[in-house]
Design a protein that fits this description.
With about 600 residues, this protein is of the alpha+beta class. The protein is about 55% helix and about 15% strand. InterPro entries: Bact_2-comp_sensor_kinase, dCache_1, HAMP_dom, HATPase_C_sf, HATPase_dom, Sig_transdc_His_kin_internal.
C-alpha cells in the first residue's frame, strides 16, 4: 500500500538518519580537514623555526669562543706593537699555547684559527695537519677580508671559507679607544659538515625536504649533495625572496608547497618543501573513512529503523485486523505482544472495549426483547382500556339520573355532591392531549372541597396564594388534590379545628416552577421523614423494587412523585419538610412553561 504506516515510518526514519549522517559527516570532515591543513602548516613553520634556531645557536656558540681570545692580554699586546716590529709570518708560541689551544680543544669543529694585525702581526693554529698550506693564498684571502666593508666588530659568517668545506667566522678587532678604528682581523675556519649533520637529522615526512641558501642565492645545504654550492635558479630565488614567512609554490615544482624564513643572525634563508599528495593523504584517508563509516552506519541504521518500524506497525496491524473482524460482528480480541509498552496498553484497552461492547450489545438485545414484550403488554392494556371506556359513560349517565332525582326531591346536598363527584371522575380519567394548567388543578381542588364540606359537616377554606400570573402554567394532572387529601387524612387526624390551615402557593426561578402545599397539622416524626426523603431520592426502579413498609400516608406522596418524574425527568418531583407538632410543607418542583412540554399522565 502506497500510504501504509510502515512505509511512512520507514521513509521518515531514512530521512532523519540520512540527514543526521550527512550533516555530522560533512561537518566533521570539513572541520577535521581544516584542522589537519592548519596543523601541517603549523608543523612546517615550526620545523623551519626549529632548524633556524638550532643553526643560530650552533653559530652563536663560536661567537663566545671569540670573546675568550679578544680578552687575552697577549693578543692585545701583540696588536698594540709598532708596525713591522715582527716578521711577516710569525707564530707566537705563547699565543698558540695560551690562547688558541683552549679554543681548539673545546671546539674540535674548528680546523684553523688566526689573528692578523694591521701592524704586521700574524698568529695561526691548526686543529688538523694541513699539507701543503698555501700561505700566499691565505694572505690574499686575508687582504680581501680587510677590504670587505661588511665585516665589522660583530661576528660575520662567510659561507665560502679559505678551506674547502669550511665556513669562515670572522670579525674585525677594534681599538681600545675607538670602536670604529680596527687593528686586525680574527677568524675561524669551521667545518660545515657539523651543520650538515644537524640539518640531515631534520625530517619532513617521507618526501619532504629543505635547503638553505645565502643572501646571494648560493645553496649552502641541500639533501642532494650535487646541488650544494651551486646557485639557485634566478626565478626560484626571486620567488623565495618574495614569499618569505608564507606558503607558496615554485615554478616547475608541481604538487609541492614551500615555506621560507630568513635568519636575522646568519642572513641565510631556509626553504622547506612538502608534497601536496602526502599532506592531503590524511585528509583523503579521513574522507574515505568518513564515507565508509557513514555507509556502514546508514545500513545499520536503516536495518534498525525497519525493525523499529515493524515493532510499531505489527501491533497496529493486529489491531486493524481485530477491528475489521469486530466490524463484521465477530467479537475478536487481539493477543498481547509481550513488550509491556504503550502498544500492549492500547491492545489491552481495545480488548476491554470489545468485551464491554459485547456485553452492551447483549444487554441491548435483551432490552429489545423486553421492549417487544412490553409493547405487546401495552397494546393489550390499550385494548382493555378501550373496553373499559364503556363503563365510565354508563357511570356518568347514572350520576346524571341521580342529580335529576335530587332536583325533583329538592335535595341540593345530594345534587352538589354528585355533581362534584361527576366532575372529579371526568377530570381524573381524561385521555386527551390538552395541557393541564394550574387553574384546572385548583378547580379540581374546589370540587374536592365541595365533597369534603359534607363529609366533615363544616366549611373549610384553603388559603390559595398563587399569583394570577401562574394560573395558566402547566403541571401534571392530579398532583394537588392527592396532597390536599393527604393533609385531611394525616395532618388533621382528630378532625378539623378553627386553627387548622392549608396554604397553596407558587413561585418561579430562572428555570423551574415551584408549587407548595403547607399545613399546620401534627407533622411527621424525624425517622419517618428521613425514610420518606430517602425513598424520594431513589430512582423509580429502586422505588418499585423497594418492599419496605412505609408510614401511613406515604403511598399518595410517592405516587405523585413518580408521575412528575415520568413526565419531566428524574431531577424533578417532591421534597418534604416537616416538624413534629408544627406542620408539614410539600414542594413540587417542575420545569417552567418555557422549558417544558407537558405530556398527559
Amino acid at each position: 500500500m502506497k500510504n501504509s504506516l510502515v512505509r511512512k515510518v520507514y521513509i521518515y526514519f531514512v530521512i532523519i538518519i540520512a540527514l543526521t549522517l550527512v550533516t555530522v559527516g560533512v561537518t566533521g570532515y570539513w572541520r577535521s580537514s581544516n584542522e589537519l591543513e592548519n596543523q601541517y602548516e603549523g608543523l612546517l613553520t615550526q620545523i623551519v623555526d626549529n632548524v633556524l634556531h638550532e643553526t643560530d645557536l650552533f653559530l652563536k656558540s663560536y661567537e663566545r669562543a671569540t670573546v675568550s681570545i679578544l680578552i687575552s692580554p697577549v693578543v692585545k699586546e701583540a696588536l698594540d706593537l709598532p708596525s713591522n716590529s715582527t716578521p711577516g709570518f710569525y707564530t707566537s708560541e705563547i699565543a698558540m699555547k695560551g690562547v688558541f689551544q683552549p679554543v681548539l680543544i673545546n671546539n674540535p669543529e674548528i680546523s684553523m684559527t688566526y689573528i692578523i694585525g694591521y701592524n704586521g702581526f700574524q698568529a695561526t693554529d691548526f686543529n688538523i695537519h694541513i699539507v701543503p698550506f698555501n700561505y700566499k693564498g691565505f694572505e690574499e684571502y686575508v687582504e680581501q677580508m680587510k677590504e670587505d666593508d661588511d665585516i665589522n666588530g660583530k661576528l660575520t659568517i662567510q659561507d665560502s671559507g679559505f678551506l674547502d668545506g669550511h665556513l669562515t667566522l670572522i670579525r674585525k678587532l677594534a681599538d681600545r679607544t675607538s670602536s670604529k678604528s680596527f687593528k686586525g682581523i680574527m677568524g675561524f675556519e669551521l667545518k660545515i659538515g657539523e651543520l650538515n649533520t644537524l640539518w640531515k637529522g631534520i625530517k619532513l615526512g617521507q618526501s619532504g625536504y629543505f635547503f638553505i641558501v645565502n643572501d646571494r642565492g648560493k645553496i649552502l645545504y641541500h639533501p642532494d649533495p650535487s646541488r650544494i654550492g651551486k646557485q639557485l635558479d634566478g626565478m626560484h630565488f626571486n620567488t623565495v625572496e618574495a614569499n618569505k614567512d608564507q606558503i607558496f609554490e615554485l615554478p616547475g615544482e608541481p604538487g609541492r608547497v614551500f615555506f621560507s624564513r630568513k635568519s636575522d643572525y646568519s642572513g641565510w634563508t631556509l626553504v622547506a618543501s612538502m608534497s601536496v599528495a602526502e599532506q592531503s593523504k590524511p585528509i583523503s584517508d579521513l574522507r574515505q573513512t568518513t564515507l565508509l563509516v557513514g555507509i556502514f552506519t546508514l545500513i545499520l541504521a536503516l536495518f534498525l529503523a525497519y525493525r523499529f518500524g515493524q515493532s510499531i506497525v505489527h501491533p497496529v496491524r493486529l489491531l486493524e485486523n481485530g477491528m475489521r473482524q469486530t466490524a463484521k460482528g465477530q467479537w475478536t480480541r487481539v493477543p498481547l505482544t509481550g513488550s509491556r509498552d504503550e502498544m500492549d496498553q492500547l491492545i489491552t484497552s481495545y480488548n476491554t472495549m470489545v468485551t464491554r461492547l459485547e456485553e452492551l450489545v447483549e444487554r441491548v438485545y435483551e432490552t429489545e426483547l423486553r421492549n417487544q414484550d412490553n409493547l405487546m403488554k401495552r397494546q393489550l392494556a390499550e385494548f382493555q382500556s378501550l373496553q373499559l371506556q364503556i363503563n365510565p359513560h354508563f357511570l356518568y349517565n347514572t350520576l346524571e339520573i341521580i342529580i335529576c332525582y335530587a332536583v325533583i326531591q329538592k335535595s341540593s346536598e345530594i345534587k352538589d355532591i354528585v355533581r362534584s363527584l361527576s366532575y372529579m371522575l371526568r377530570y381524573s380519567i381524561r385521555t386527551d392531549l390538552e395541557e393541564i394548567t394550574v387553574a384546572n388543578e385548583l378547580k379540581h381542588i374546589l370540587y374536592f372541597m365541595s365533597i369534603m364540606k359534607y363529609r366533615n359537616q363544616r366549611e373549610f377554606e384553603i388559603d390559595v396564594r398563587i399569583s394570577t400570573d401562574y394560573l395558566l402554567d402547566s403541571m401534571v394532572r392530579l398532583t394537588l388534590q392527592p396532597l390536599v387529601e393527604n393533609v385531611f387524612k394525616h395532618a388533621f387526624p382528630y378532625g378539623i379545628e378553627d386553627t387548622h390551615t392549608i396554604i397553596i402557593d407558587a413561585w418561579k426561578d430562572e428555570t423551574d416552577f415551584y408549587v407548595i402545599v403547607e399545613d399546620n397539622g401534627c407533622g411527621i416524626d424525624a425517622e419517618s421523614l428521613l425514610q420518606l426523603n430517602i425513598r424520594l431520592m431513589n430512582s423509580r426502579e429502586e422505588r418499585l423494587l423497594d418492599t419496605q413498609p412505609t408510614f401511613e400516608g406515604s403511598i399518595g406522596l410517592l405516587n405523585v412523585h413518580n408521575r412528575i418524574q415520568m413526565v419531566f425527568g428524574e431531577q424533578y418531583g417532591l421534597s418534604i419538610q416537616s416538624d413534629l407538632g408544627v406542620g408539614t410543607k410539600v414542594t413540587i418542583r417542575m420545569p417552567s412553561s418555557s422549558a417544558k412540554k407537558v405530556m398527559p399522565v
